[in-house]
Amino acid sequence: MEVTQVLFNAQSIDGTVRKNAEESLKQFQEQNLPGFLLSLSGELANEEKPIETRKLAGLILKNALDAKEQHRKFELVQRWLLLDATAKSQIKACLLQTLSSPVFDARSTTSQVIAKVAGIELPQKQWPELIGSLLSNVHQIPAHAKQATLETLGYLCEEVSPDVIDQDQVNKILTAVVQGMSASEGNIDVRLAATRALYNALGFAQANFSNDMERDYIMRVVCEATLSPEVRIRQAAFECLVSISSTYYEKLTPYIQDIFNITSKAVREDEEPVALQAIEFWSSICDEEIDILEEYGGEFTGDSDEPCFYFIKKALPALVPMLLETLLKQEEDQDQDEGAWNIAMAGGTCLGLVARTVGDDIVPLVVPFVEENITKPEWRQREAATYAFGSILDGPSPEKLIPLVNVALTFMLSALTKDPNSQVKDTTAWALGRIFEFLLGSAVDLPIITQANCQQIVTVLLQSMKDTPNVAEKACGALYFLAQGYEGEGESSPLTPFFQEIVQSLLTVTHREDVGDSRLRTAAYETLNEVVRCSTIETAPLVLQLVAVIMMELHNTLESQKLSSDEREKQSELQGLLCGCLQVIIQKLGSSETTKYAFMQYADQIMGLFLRVFACRSATVHEEAMLAIGALAYAIGADFAKYMPEFYRYLEMGLQNFEEYQVCAVTVGVVGDISRALEEKIVPYCDGIMTQLLKNLSSNQLHRSVKPPIFSCFGDIALAVEEYFEKYLMWAMSALQSAADLSTHIAGDDELVEYTNSLRNGILEAYSGIFQGFKNSPKTQLLIPYAPHILQFLDGIYMEKDMDDMVMKTAIGVLGDLADTLGNHASSMIQQSVSSKDFLNECLSSEDLLVKESAQWAKLAISRAISV
Amino acid sequence: MAPHDIRRPFKRAAISDQQKRRELSLLRQAQNRRDAQQQARCLASSILSLQSAAPESQPEQSDIELETVPEAEQESEAFSKDLDVRQASKLRGPEVRKWFARQLMLPEWMIDVPDRLAQDWYVFARPAGKRCFVVSSNGTTVSRQRNGSILHHFPSALPAGAKIRDGSGSAQSYCILDCIFHELDQTYYVIDMVCWNGYSLYDCTAEFRFYWLNSKLEESGACNAPSHYHKFRFSAVPVYNCDQSGLHAAYTGVVPYAKDGLLFYNKHALYQTGNTPLALVWKDENCSQFVIDTDGKGEIPSQQQVVLELQDDRKLVTSDDPPVLFGCLDGDIIEKSGLHTGNLLRFAIGDGGLSFVDGKLEKADLIYLGKSNRARAFADSYSKGFQLKSL
Questions:
Q1: How many residue contacts between A and B have a Cβ separation below 8 Å?
Q2: Helix, strand, or coil (residue B146)
């Protein structure tokens, strides 16, 4: 096969030619994978071939080794590993050779392909000579080969995890990279490649950062690179500093003064991409210190694992003025551009983080700036002053802030309606929202909102909803937090008198002609949701009236015919907002007996609308409609059975949606709602549901986060259908058992531990539901054979010592359920288990009340099982 | 390698409302799942069997014959703290009384002012009347006094307290309230909430229990005037923080009931059965008409009395845990009066009174009066003796 021609054709503007070429490439790949990969790598290596085909050959090679979807990636990796060894070594030789090609694009693509191969092979202890041969390249004369090699090392560090490469090789990589960065390297491209490579290699440098001399050297080279005449190198060097600030926070003390000088010079004088990174360094330090100080807050011992060095607190007097200066560098109309990110925005964000880090100390440093600028004729100064004020509202104590807010509030309310500049109004509305978000309902004696100004606040916000879309959106946001501030007010809220007016204004906003592409409509519905969530019983009749209004809106979306794909997307989005709103209303009205009964009159109509929303699409279900149906099932209870014949197929469709796994997860949750609502009436649908759930569990295409809820759902179903679950017992138990085995011996990062705990929780909830479902049934003895494994599982997770309180609670509850249901059949097994002694005692003395409660239940159940 | 994106959210809330909706749904589902499980594990059925147990009407002689505590009894003692109503349902006669007596949280007498009184404690005026447990379950309500005897058996508006179809209360739900029945206005004053609608509040702090009590009791309609399905009115008592104004309000404030001292509850204390230093009682003539013991006819006996328990080595102890030794009984009195270990004996405090050294009882001048009323389930506590002395 003449691969060059096919690769050419694959880039043709003629669709048919392109399609044919793609088809033949696909066939080639399927029929002869080694041949396919060999000819691609040959094409890539061949200096005679045109750049376009070489580049595409590299790209296809890369895609033959990696994919976004986990299951596809796994497949590709397996195929590569099974490939003939001779072919693989030929391909790898081609790749290494191409690294010294004089053609930039060929080198650049190759370095990515090599990294992909390394990502597969190094963890398998294959291709051991790779790093050695790359490092020998670094000492070659042609600068372009050196550049490509450093780039390859950078990609390689991105692909493989640090534990795969031994320390000796890490040292050599770092030495090569840092040498490439240093000022003695004359070639700019080499320096840039080395600096970018260091960014990825930093994660490998744990040992080197613990050594004072090596760390000093690396830090010196990075700091020098921030002064390079080449802007891309300066930017890459600051990126390294940002990464170091989070990875090696605890090593920064000796360098922080120098870094402050470098960053503040960059923020004031350098080009924007560099200045943004320099600001990001301080934002990142804030992130670190906020995390550490939050840890401290949790306990009083003071000697947490991670010490806080209070870099922000110490830099404060110089840092705050620097950030305040950036606020004056706004771009015109930045608020109307969703993608905008500039130095004023970065500086303002950083100022907010600094306030959260240091609290009260920031107030005296910012207040003079606000006072000086807030009344200036130049809009930039007023906007900057307002932004500065808004950004320090989260962090300092209410005692410190409320007197200031009480002074500022009247001014801000007036600015929101009267300031001639739209950006100032936008920021004012945002800052008002921050006041309500962080300072309402605080325990301080001085209230911000009084009977006297409540009316004015509401009036101003509602008026601003008629302003330009971006200002109106922020006004909605402010109202959102105003409503939230009065959540749980009991009988009456200060907003009660305005409820009708607020709802009316929000509905008007949703119908604005210019609502178009902005987030305004979404913001209006979200605010409406929050207003409903936080409403009190006094306004329940008005919420009930809203049901018919929203239903009508939803009905209208269903009437439009023959939509373009763009319109269809808009329609679906609006339906999502309306279903979301109905969900909130259903949950609100369903939570109290009196309002629930009044709401029931609409149940049939609402369900009818939801079914029509589902019918708008052919293959997928609407997530928001599904969520709303869950709330409806909970409110209606057993009567929901009448909707099942029609609803069932959408339920099944939702469970089959692997692509949008959120939809699948939401649907699994709804199955739980329906089980609890229908109880034994769900039996006719169980075969279908259980089959699909078991299928989902065995699929490697489904996002793993959906699997724990599926197990919990087994428990919900078992509890609902009781001994009828016998039909599925064997299958469910075997799925549970293999998942249980997987979830005991794990070692990994926090994320994996968290996932494992959620998996365990799901498994345990399933066991609980099954045991309780079979209680008092003559078929209890069916469960006896599973008991030893379950007890072993409980013992196993107890021994691993990495469970969270949630798992602890569910696990000890399962022990109780097992004892309760199996009684004396299990007494000797239980007595032999570690769980019934050490684990139980540990839970009984737990600080967590839910754990303790479950443990007491277990103790009681065990004592009865043993005594019988 | 392209530069890395460092854009952060600007003027945006941290989570979207859609995410909030998802999370709230998940929370609701988790809560519903917990409810369903809780119901399956629920203890209501046992509460039910307890009500038919303990035939209070028939007089029993057994408590004098009651010998050393049998082993099974000790086991049930160990479980009693966990509201083991199943165990309790098997008990009969005097055991029922003992069991119930142990389920109540009993205040110690206040003999010194706790640290951080103003911050950590509540105070309220204790209604005068009969301390009892009110249990509503399966359409009926039963009140039992400290000694286990039934005071009333009646329908009430408490969840599961009357046989009316309201659709909401599941058959499994039940309530246990710690009350004082006030004769004069025939009202149950609820001083603590132990279980509500199937949920145990044993492990909740007083702060939470009182909050729950105030919001839920009113909501249930139990505070309404009596009606066909609601024979007695329930009422919460006004609870104050122990600061100066709160103390003043509790001490002098007008309440619809006759006061019997002040009760102090530590805000962080869980509902602990038996005597606890985390609940305290204070009485003086201003806030109680029963500042000192009265006899059956309401007359003040010439000498103050204490009830102590006789142990097998002739020692006399209080109901505290561990018991405090108040003295020893002569062997011949025991023989003459046919007393047994575990008997509760009434003593008058003689002119010698009680003398304390460093807060410890050194000497007590006790005069044996006889066996205590057999409806009594346990001895007085040490702190009562202490407060008597200080009067």
A1: 110
A2: coil
CB of A283 less than 8 A from some CB of B: yes
In this prediction the pTM is: 0.70
| Yes or no, beta carbons of A584 and B40 under 8 Å apart | no
A467 assigned to some structural domain: no
Distance from CA of B116 to the nearest CA of A (A): 20
Residue-wise pLDDT for B263-281, tens only, equals: 999 888 888 777 778 888 8
At B154 the pLDDT is 87
Look at residue A827 and tell me if it is in a domain: yes
Residue A290 CA to residue A45 CA, distance in Å, equals 50
Report the CATH number that the domain containing residue A766 is assigned in CATH.
1.25.10
* Residue A705 located in a structural domain: no
Please give the structure tokens belonging to residue A538.
């006094």
Asked whether the beta carbons of A164 and A122 are under 8 A apart, the reply is yes
Its domain, for residue A857, covers 726-867
Query: Which of A426, A477, A673 lies nearest to residue B29, judging by beta carbons?
Result: A673
Distance, in angstroms, between A427 CA and closest chain B CA?
A: 8
- Residue with tokens 């509401």, as numbered in its chain: A458
Q: Is the pLDDT of residue B169 over 80?
A: no
Q: Give SS3 for B132.
A: strand
Residue B322, pLDDT above cutoff 90 = no
The structure tokens 């090609």 sit at A101
Query: pLDDT below 50 — which residues of chain A?
Result: 300
Q: Look at residue A635 and tell me if it is in a domain.
A: no
Contact A225, A215 (CB under 8 A): no
Q: Which CATH class is domain B35-47+85-282?
A: alpha beta
User: Using an 8 Å Cβ cutoff, are B347 and B306 in contact?
Assistant: yes
> CB of A411 within 8 Å of any CB in chain B?
no
Whether this model's ipTM surpasses 0.85 comes out as no
pLDDT at B76 over 50: no
| Amino acid identity for residue B264 in this structure | F
pLDDT of residue A405: 94
Q: Looking at chain B, which residues constitute the CATH 3.30.470.30 domain(s)? A: 35-47+85-282
Alpha carbon distances (Å) from B255 to A113, B125, B177, B237:
84, 8, 21, 8
How close does chain A come to B29, measured CA to CA in Å? 7
pLDDT tens per residue, range A5-47: 999 899 989 999 999 999 999 999 999 999 999 999 999 999 9
Q: Return the SS3 of A196.
A: helix
Reduced to 3 states (helix: H, G, I; strand: E, B; else coil), residue A575 is helix
Q: In this model, does residue B74 exceed pLDDT 70?
A: no
Q: What are phi and psi of B105, to 5 degrees?
A: -85, 125
Q: Are strands B121-127 and B240-241 parallel, antiparallel or unpaired?
A: antiparallel
Q: Which among A426, A672, A853 has CB closest to B203?
A: A853
> DSSP H helical segments within A299-450, as ranges?
311-327, 343-358, 363-373, 379-391, 398-418, 422-439
Query: To the nearest whole percent, how much of chain B has pLDDT over 90?
Result: 8
Domain count, chain A: 1
- Of residues B13 and B70, more confidence is placed in B13
pLDDT digits (tens, 9 = 90+) for A44-103: 999 999 999 999 999 999 999 999 887 889 999 999 999 999 999 999 999 999 999 999
Provide the pLDDT confidence category of residue B48 given band limits of 50, 70 and 90.
Answer: very low
What is the reported pLDDT for B69?
33
* DSSP summary character for residue A296: H
C-alpha pair distances (Å), A817 with each of A160, A625, A630, A744, A772: 45, 35, 27, 21, 6
What is the gyration radius of the CA atoms in chain B, in angstroms?
25
Q: Tell whether omega for the bond before B322 is within 30 degrees of 0, i.e. cis.
A: yes
Q: Which residue has better confidence, A765 or B340?
A: A765
Q: Do B37 and A813 touch (CB under 8 A)?
A: yes
CA distance A7 to A27: 14
Residues with Cβ within 8 Å of A404's Cβ and at least 6 positions away in sequence, in order, are A363, A367, A389
